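Researcher: Can you fold this with aspartic acid in place?
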Amino acid sequence: MKKKVYIIYTGGTIGMKPTENGYAPAKGFLREQMEAMPELKHDDMPEYFIHEYDPLLDSANMTPDNWMEIAMDIYNNYYEYDGFVVLHGTDTMAYTASALAFMLEGLAKPVVITGSQIPLYEIRSDGRVNLITAMQIAANYKIPEVCLYFGDKLLRGCRSVKFSADRLHAFTSPNFPPLGTVGIDIKINWDLVLPFPNRDFKAQRLRQHNI
Ligand code: ASP
């Protein structure tokens, strides 16, 4: 039976469209791009459902309310899917990954956050391989953690940091080794992956967040 992945599309460069004023997110555009990708129809790829947020955000405008929305979305769809992919702008991706790691308690399925430096629309987009790999990891690898996948590395979400605005391998994890590396094969460092939780899954609400 095909695995099922729930894709949360919050905004960011990956789904942006060229406009007179530069790249901007546009309703339905990411879905169109994905429908045109033959790779996503391959037998090895999972079934997927896309939940596009409204409005689509540049991640500089993300707030804790948006983190809550993502956490509750995962909570509400948790038992229907094998894994979750969150498409997000790169600028605050590491912050959202950290917040989700603490909000999703007792998580026993992979939540993989990713995006791109170049929109999917462009020929040299890094979004294509980031998206495909994130979907494969979310579908097929039983990693009970919030992770960030970018370039060639799978990082623990709450240990990740963006270190470059123009490199395609833009994220690193200076204080913890990668949970996985992606080259010819996807290699997971299982010794570093968190053990399966022995409590029920719940999404912690953020009550006071005046910063
Ligand atoms: N400004 C964009 C964002 O963070 C940059 C990106 O997605 O790479 O939403």
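Model: Folded with aspartic acid in place. The helical segments are 29-35, 64-77, 93-103, 127-140.
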